[in-house]
Every structure is written in structure tokens, then in C-alpha cells.
Design goal:
The complex is a heterodimer of chains A (about 475) and B (about 425). Chain A has three domains: about 1-290, 7-stranded beta/alpha barrel (Alpha-Beta Barrel), CATH 3.20.110; about 310-395, no CATH class; about 400-484, no CATH class. Chain A is built from 21 helices and twelve strands. Chain A has helices at about 35-60, 75-85, 85-95, 110-115, 115-135, 150-160, 170-175, 200-205, 220-230, 255-270, 275-285, 305-310, 310-320, 325-330, 335-345, 345-350, 360-365, 370-395, 400-435, 445-455, 460-484; strands at about 1-10, 70, 100, 140-145, 165-170, 185, 190-195, 235-240, 245, 250, 270-275, 290. In chain A, helix 6 (about 150-160) links the parallel strand 4 (about 140-145) and strand 5 (about 165-170). In chain A, helix 1 (about 35-60) runs parallel beside helix 3 (about 85-95), helix 9 packs across helix 10 and helix 19 packs across helix 21. The relative contact order of chain A is 0.12. The model of chain A is unreliable at about 455-484 (pLDDT under 50). Chain B folds into two domains: about 1-225 and about 400-415, Rossmann fold (3-Layer(aba) Sandwich); about 230-395, Rossmann fold. In chain B, helix 4 runs parallel beside helix 5, helix 10 crosses helix 14 (about 370-380) and helix 14 (about 370-380) crosses helix 15. Chain B is elongated, with a radius of gyration of 23 Å. The chains are: A alpha/beta (about 475), B alpha/beta (about 425).
Chain lengths: ~475, ~425
């Protein structure tokens, strides 16, 4: 029995406003609110919301046999919460059907997996926390930014307890192998790998409404026939695409929604079921290992990471950003941590790509800038200001390690002070207890009593504090009165 | 294939970009093979390169019969012309031009520059073209820029061969809209009589079609290219400097947009102090620019070098961190390509023809001084920007070679001849 595994990606970056060098050091707000609002609202109206409705209908119609997975970046969630809150509600409704699984990814849709493992881990955690808060699910399968993947990433992901990961079925990795199987990572055999079937995914995402395409028009009937015609042993068809496919990339009038709605019926006829990635990794067994030495992704013809880190501009921007990483871990300031997240979105680096071939035209299509050079300039101006703010938090001359040590000392001292405060309170209470007697308190004596008392009896003493503090006010006023 | 070209300048004695482009194209065409090019200029000096084309001077072409012996001719003009050619030309004098101001060899004198009596010189040039066209066998006639259009038309009438005119600039570029009617008429006449028109950019092509009312299918763009620089120039050494240098290099005239450069410089200097701005060149707006810089209180950071020539240009580029050309209207604009050859990141206006073929430069609207300032700041502050533009620019400009342009021109010739 074959299974179709759908996963949809939703991501929007916080686009930067035009940030001139004059603004460096003066203006600490970096985002183009108008564009961000405009774009996400437009896409949500045209695509996300109707597509959610479509999925909801499909799940209802097919008695929960239809299942999908989502990967939504933290930055997209924030924008949706802010600008299209009805989407979050609709997503919750989908989550409640039990047929929708949420995948893990980096909060900022960042490239941290390639440059900064610690930051990578911390972002995965904060993303999954966000998903839990909103939808009540703990993701079990990991999907990296733009499906970036290699052996090192696999090890980290496995160490975090994920059972599976999703990546691209890149031809140069697979060779003769088919993406239509479950694999496992060579560097972490416990981590199962789901590979995108590029051909079938792109048939929907990119070619569906193209009249030049030989298979145009694509019908659900035909599409399921293709899948069913695959060799018997190829059991797993991973269809991964951007959620904008529905309604935005393929406009509503192309019939994309009707195509999707018809899929389950034809699938059922051919005995094909739908599974989420989580079900796949728990039910299916991997057929072999995959080793990926150099990072792959789902972008461009080369399926590598050169779209984000392929030229000197991108290298400089990435390096300049991530050299702040350690320092930022020490900073508690919320605004700074938020900007740190937003500035990491891979999109900023994508806009700086100088690939001029056919890939280049795709790049420029998505970029708000007229050239990679202006993208770089704007980003670097923003980053320069961010750098100033980070430096303002702590003097630059202090090394990270030294700073870390100092901060540790401060935190330890804070703890110690807290501890001492508690002791003092305890003492006071004891004194209060003593002073309920008829003699004027002798501080030295009381201290000795407290010391002797607090060491062996810490636990019971704690329990009684609540009661005692409640009476404290009245008793202390009594003592005061007595003193007079 | 035999081509008869009419030009006004030829290296090394050049006054502007026209000579460089004419030479580059001729050389590029010769490299494509099977080309026999005769290049006519008003006044050769004798040190022009002759490997790619035969040079004939209008000032050594007789229009009136003089009985002079070989030795005399050899002694007078042997340096620039083979005496036999002189006699061949003399055999083809088609009318008696003794009423004109001719010299001992029966030739008209030319300045070869852009004198006040330019129109008279253009007219004389076309008289001489009649003799040359009758003497030199050719398959196609090619006129470079408006000064030589009348000569081209004349040669076409004499020989019946197809005429190609090469528009290196139009009067709309030179005058920023205030067109000289005489020049316009000469240009228009040339375009009407031409069998095909080559423009140096799509920008110019658009001007030719829209302003001169020429049918689009008669106009083809062949972008200019650059000659590779000699090792000597690439290896030029300049004294070490401690400040960033931003350079504007070209005529300081309205067409080149110098005031936008000053404004952008002022903006940058509000934020960064260790930058010097250089305005290299001369022109009718130079004094105005000096006053403008002074009024903006940035004169101390501004340097006016005056006109640079030859090696000085490359020394200036070598010492620069940023090259900038904010031209209001530039048919092509070859100097950013030279800056790129020297590894200098360049900022050019979108209103320049060369912007159509360059990717690894920063393109801005000439009036958008904010964008110009941002670009300057980015290049001098962010090493990645400098490096990317420098390396990629160099790689890109090395691909822009004259033989490719030459091949396109030869294609056009073939189409015309086989028509």
C-alpha cells in the first residue's frame, strides 16, 4: 500500500525597511511594517485561509483519512498572530482534527545549522515551544530551513531526540536510488529521512497551471495514476511544497483547490493512503543509509546552499551576524533578542545572491530589492546599528569568556543574596516568635538560635514561613508597640 | 569583405571616446578574420596602429591635380601615406576643386579636431570622401558618428554600396534636450540615407527611433567593449594612502551630472570623515562645482585635478576605492569599464548605456543622491561589498571584448550585402 505524505511550508521574513547609513546609531527599528503587513495579509487572504478551509473540508469529508503536515517558521507565526489572527484560529481548528502534524524547524528560518550549532539548537527549542503554546503539539520530525541537510546537521537533530528529518531528494545524493523510500542518516542511524519527490511536488507547485507543460491540464485522476504506476516497492511519496502554492503560485482560477479536493477520492480507489511524517517514521522501516557530506537544500538547480552563502557579500553578512552569537546569548534584553531572530532569516541572504543564470531570475522575483548589492547595503547598515546596540550592553573590550565568568558571578551572587534574604526573613520570624514572649529581644542570642534552627530544620521551617509571614505584620506591630 | 570606414579620431590622438571605440571595433572586426578595412580620418599623425586597417588621411587625399614627383610626395607625406596611394587617389579626382583652399599637393587641410568651423570641415571631409570612394574598392561603407555621415552618404551615392552609420552619440545626449538644428539635420539625413544604423546602446537606439523617427527594424544595438589593459598599466604603483578615495572622472559638464556627485559626497561626509573626493577632468561646470563644494563646507575633502590624460587616468583609478559616473545621459560610457579593469568598484547611473550590459556595478538613478551616497558608504565601509564588486567586476569586464562586437557588425554587413 502506497502512502502520500504531504507537508506544507509557511514562512515569511520580517522585511527590512530602507535603512540608510545616516540611521546607523540613531534608528533602532528596522522593519518595513507596511510591506510585511501587506504581503502576509494578501497571501493569507488569497492562499493560507482558503487553503486551510480546503484542508478542513477534505478532512471532514474523508473521515480523517486525509492527513497533512505543516512547518511554520516562528517569524511567520508572529506576523500571522499580529496581522491575520483569524489564520491562527483556523490553524488551531485544523490541529484539533488530529489529522494535522506540526514539524520542527528553526524559529527564525535561519541558516544557523550551517554556521552556529548552539544557536541552531536554541532556535529549534524556541520554535517547538511556540508550536506547543499555539497548537498543543510537540513536533517529532525536524525540517530545516529550505530543507538544508548534511551529516552534521543529522547528528545534532538526532541528539535532540527527533525521530525523523525531512530533506530534498537531491539527485547528486541519491544517484540511482529513489526518493520514494524511507532512509536513515549515516551519521545518526536512529534518525529516519523523508526525501522530497521533486518531480511530483513541482508538478503541483510550479507546473500545475502552465499550459506549455506537456501534461497540462493536470487532473487528480491523472496524478494519482502516475503515483499508482510507480513500482510496487516504492511506498512513500513525499510531496513537499510551499503553502502559497494554493491560491498564490497557482491561482484559485487554475482549479488547484478542486484538484486537491479530488485527490483523496482517487487515492482511495487506488488504495493509496495519506500519512503524516510522524506516522511514517513510526510505522515504516528505513531501507538504507544516506550520507551527505556537503549540505544540500531544495533551492535552485544545484540543490546546494549557494543561494544563501555563495558569494562574498553573503559570506560577510553571515559572518558579521553570527560573530555576535556568543555575546547575544549573554544578553537578556528582549528587543535585542527579537532583532537577533529577525535578522537571521535566510531570506535576507537570499536577496544578496548574484547568480545570474535561470536561477537568478527566480531570486530577483522574490526580492524587494532591485539588486543584490542594494540588498547587501541595506542589511549591513541595519546590522551595523544592531552591532552598536549589542556593544552598548557590555563593553567590547571584555572577552566573551571573561564576561561570561562575570555574569556567572553576578548570577551566583544574586542567588546567594536571595538565599540570604530568605535566611534573614526566617531569622526575623524566629525573632518574632521569640518576642511573643515577654522579654526584649537580644539580637545575638536570636541569631544563634536561628543558625542552630535553620541548619537541621530547613525544610519544616520553610513550611511554617507562610503562616508566620501572615502573622508577621500584626506581631511586628505589637513588638513595635512594646518597644515604645 | 572590404569595408570603407569614415571616422574622425583614431588613437593615439584622441579627444574623446569616439576614437577609442572606432579603433576597438576595427580591431575586433579584424580579429574575426577575412576583413579588409580602410579607415579614413581627417588628419593622421603617422603613429596610428596600422595592423588592422589601412589609414587614409583626408588631408593627404588630393582633390585638385598637382604634378608632383614621387620623391616630393614621399618627402611630404610618406610618413602617413604610401605615395602610390596618393597617385591612385589623384587619378580619381572627380571635379575641379581648385577654387578651394588647397595646398601644394592639391589637398585640403584639416585640423582633425573640433574647431569653430567644424561644419566647413565636415563638408570638406565629404568632398574628399568622393575621391576616396572612387579609388578604394569596398563592399560596405561605415560612418562613425554624425561628423562623417555626409561623407558616408556621398560615398554611397558614388559607389552604390550599402551604408551603415554608427551612432556613438546623438545631439540629444550632448545638449540635454536643447538640440542644435543643424546638427540634428545632419544626423537625421545620415539616418535616412543609411541602409542600417548601429547604436552603442538600447538607450541610444530608443532615441534614434523616437526622436529621429527611424523604423526600429533598421536599428541594431552593438554595445561597445574595452581593450584589455597592458600589464604596465595594471602594474602601476601609486603611493600608499591613508584615506578612502572616491573618484569622478570625466568632463565636468552638465551631461555628466557632477552636481549629484557633490551632493552625495556631502551626505557621506556627514557620517564618515576619512574620505577624499576627487573630481578629475575639466569642463564648463568646474568652477561652479568648486563653489558648490565650498558652499557645502566640504571643499577641504574635495580635490579638483584638472584634465588627466594617458597614464594619469590609470594612476588616478589605481588610487581610487570607488569610481562614480552619475551621467544624466550617456550613450554608452566606456570609462566605468576601464575602472573595472583597474579593479575599482563602480557606481553608474541607470541612464548610461553601459548599465545595460554590466551587472557587477551599482546602478542608481543619477538624481537619486541618497542611493549614490548609500552605495559609496557601503563600498568604503563593508569589505565584502568592495571585494565582490572588485573581483566580479574584473571578471565581468574581461568578458566584454571587441571581437564579439566586431562579429555582430560583420553579421550586419553580411545581411546588407546579401540583401
Amino acid at each position: 500500500m502506497k502512502s502520500i505524505c504531504f507537508y506544507f511550508q509557511i514562512h515569511q521574513p520580517f522585511r527590512l525597511k530602507t535603512y540608510r547609513f545616516f540611521d546607523i546609531g540613531n534608528d533602532h527599528y528596522y522593519y518595513d511594517d507596511f510591506a510585511n503587513d501587506d504581503i502576509i495579509t494578501r497571501i493569507a487572504q488569497r492562499s493560507y485561509l482558503p487553503a486551510n478551509q480546503m484542508l478542513l473540508d477534505m478532512i471532514k469529508e474523508n473521515g480523517k483519512k486525509f492527513k497533512v503536515a505543516f512547518s511554520i517558521s516562528g517569524t511567520a507565526l508572529e506576523q500571522l498572530e499580529q496581522y491575520v489572527p483569524e489564520f491562527i484560529d483556523s490553524m488551531k481548528e485544523l490541529a484539533d482534527t488530529g489529522c494535522v502534524e506540526f514539524l520542527s524547524e528553526t524559529y527564525a528560518h535561519s541558516l544557523s545549522s550551517l554556521v552556529d550549532p548552539e544557536e541552531f539548537i536554541s532556535q529549534i527549542k524556541s520554535h517547538d515551544e511556540k508550536i506547543y503554546q499555539l497548537f498543543g503539539q510537540r513536533p517529532k520530525v525536524f525540517r530545516n530551513t529550505e530543507l538544508i541537510y548534511d551529516d552534521d546537521i543529522a547528528s545534532i537533530v538526532a541528539s535532540l531526540g527527533f525521530k525523523g528529518a525531512i530533506t530534498e531528494g537531491a539527485k547528486h545524493i541519491l544517484g540511482w536510488k529513489s526518493p520514494n523510500y524511507l532512509y536513515k542518516a549515516a551519521s545518526a542511524p536512529k534518525l529516519k529521512l523523508l526525501l522530497k519527490n521533486s518531480k511530483l511536488s513541482d508538478d503541483i507547485a510550479f507546473r500545475f497551471s502552465n499550459p506549455e507543460w506537456s501534461a497540462y491540464p493536470l487532473t487528480a485522476d491523472k496524478y494519482i495514476d502516475w503515483i499508482s504506476a510507480l513500482p510496487e516497492e516504492e511506498m512513500l511519496i513525499n510531496l513537499f511544497m510551499n503553502y502559497e502554492t494554493f491560491g498564490e503560485l497557482q491561482p484559485r482560477e487554475s482549479g488547484i483547490f478542486e484538484f486537491m479536493k479530488a485527490l483523496p477520492r482517487f487515492a482511495a480507489q487506488h488504495n493509496i493512503e495519506f500519512m503524516t511524517p510522524g506516522e511514517v517514521v513510526s510505522k515504516m522501516k528505513p531501507v538504507g543509509e544516506l550520507s551527505v557530506m556537503h549540505p544540500i537544500s531544495w533551492a535552485d538547480e544545484a540543490r546546494d546552499t549557494s543561494a544563501w552563502m555563495g558569494n562574498i557579500l553573503q559570506e560577510e553578512a553571515v559572518n558579521k551576524l553570527y560573530c555576535l552569537s556568543e555575546r547575544i546569548q549573554l544578553i537578556q534584553d528582549k528587543r535585542i533578542r527579537q532583532d537577533w531572530n529577525y535578522l537571521q532569516a535566510s531570506d535576507h541572504f537570499y536577496y544578496m545572491s548574484t547568480k545570474h543564470s535561470s536561477d537568478g531570475s527566480v531570486h530577483s522575483h522574490y526580492s524587494p530589492y532591485d539588486s543584490p548589492y542594494s540588498a547587501f547595503t541595506n542589511y549591513m547598515n541595519v546590522l551595523s546599528d544592531f552591532l552598536i546596540r549589542v556593544r552598548e550592553q557590555f563593553p567590547e573590550e571584555i572577552e566573551n569568556e571573561e564576561l561570561n565568568a562575570l555574569l556567572l558571578t553576578i548570577r551566583n551572587q544574586e542567588k546567594e543574596i536571595e538565599e540570604l534574604n530568605r535566611e534573614v526573613e526566617l531569622m526575623r520570624n524566629n525573632i518574632v516568635k521569640d518576642t511573643t514572649g515577654d522579654f526584649v529581644p537580644n539580637i545575638e542570642e536570636a541569631e544563634q538560635v536561628v543558625e542552630a534552627e535553620s541548619k537541621p530544620k530547613k525544610a519544616p521551617a520553610k513550611k511554617s514561613t507562610a503562616k508566620k509571614t501572615a502573622t508577621k505584620k500584626s506581631t511586628s506591630s505589637k513588638t513595635a508597640a512594646k518597644k515604645k | 569583405m572590404k569595408a570603407l570606414m569614415f571616422g574622425w579620431e583614431f588613437p593615439p590622438h584622441i579627444l574623446g571616446g569616439l576614437g577609442t571605440a572606432s579603433f576597438g571595433l576595427t580591431k575586433g572586426m579584424a580579429q574575426c578574420g577575412d576583413m579588409d578595412i580602410t579607415f579614413v580620418i581627417p588628419k593622421p599623425w603617422g603613429d596610428e596602429p596600422k595592423d588592422f586597417a589601412r589609414i587614409i588621411g583626408a588631408n593627404t587625399t588630393p582633390v585638385a591635380w598637382r604634378d608632383v614627383n614621387w620623391d616630393y610626395v614621399e618627402g611630404r607625406i610618406g610618413k602617413v601615406l604610401d605615395p602610390q596611394t596618393y597617385y591612385d587617389l589623384r587619378d580619381h579626382i572627380y571635379s575641379d576643386f581648385n577654387y578651394m583652399n588647397t595646398n601644394d599637393l592639391g589637398c585640403i587641410e584639416f585640423s582633425g579636431r573640433y574647431p569653430d568651423n567644424l561644419l566647413e570641415e565636415i563638408n570638406n571631409y565629404s568632398i574628399v570622401a568622393g575621391v576616396i570612394a572612387r579609388t578604394i574598392d569596398c563592399d560596405v561603407i561605415h560612418s562613425h558618428d554624425w561628423l562623417t555621415y555626409p561623407a558616408g552618404i556621398h560615398a554611397k551615392q558614388v559607389t552604390g554600396k550599402p551604408l551603415v552609420i554608427h551612432v556613438h552619440a546623438t545631439d540629444f545626449d550632448r545638449s540635454r534636450g536643447k538640440v542644435n538644428p543643424t546638427v540634428f539635420n545632419i544626423e537625421k539625413d545620415g539616418m535616412n540615407n543609411a541602409d542600417h544604423i548601429i547604436t552603442v546602446s538600447n538607450l541610444t537606439r530608443k532615441t534614434v527611433i523616437e526622436k529621429y523617427g527611424i523604423s526600429p527594424d533598421k536599428v541594431t544595438t552593438v554595445h561597445n567593449a574595452v581593450e584589455p589593459l597592458s600589464q604596465e598599466l595594471l602594474d602601476l604603483e601609486v603611493p600608499p594612502k591613508h584615506e578612502k578615495v572616491v573618484t569622478f572622472l570625466g568632463r565636468i559638464t552638465m551631461q555628466k551630472g557632477p552636481e549629484y556627485f557633490v551632493d552625495a559626497a556631502w551626505q557621506v561626509l556627514q557620517k564618515v570623515h576619512n574620505v577624499q573626493f576627487v573630481m578629475a577632468g575639466s569642463g564648463d561646470m568646474m568652477e561652479k562645482m568648486i563653489r558648490l563644494a565650498a558652499r557645502r563646507h566640504i571643499a577641504g575633502r574635495f580635490h579638483f585635478t584638472g584634465f588627466l590624460k594617458g597614464k594619469q587616468v590609470y594612476e588616478m583609478l589605481k588610487a581610487s576605492d570607488v569610481y562614480i559616473m552619475p551621467s544624466v545621459s550617456e550613450p554608452f560610457g566606456i570609462s566605468p569599464l576601464e575602472a573595472m579593469q583597474m579593479g575599482v568598484p563602480s557606481i553608474i547611473s541607470k541612464q548610461s548605456g553601459c548599465a545595460e550590459i554590466l551587472n557587477n556595478v551599482i546602478k542608481v538613478d543619477y538624481w537619486d543622491t541618497n542611493a549614490i551616497a548609500d552605495a559609496i558608504y557601503s563600498i568604503i565601509k563593508y569589505p565584502g561589498m568592495y571585494k565582490q564588486l572588485r573581483e566580479q567586476g574584473l571578471e565581468e569586464v574581461n568578458q566584454i571584448t571587441w571581437d564579439r562586437a566586431g562579429a555582430k557588425v560583420i553579421d550586419i554587413y553580411k545581411r546588407l550585402i546579401n540583401r
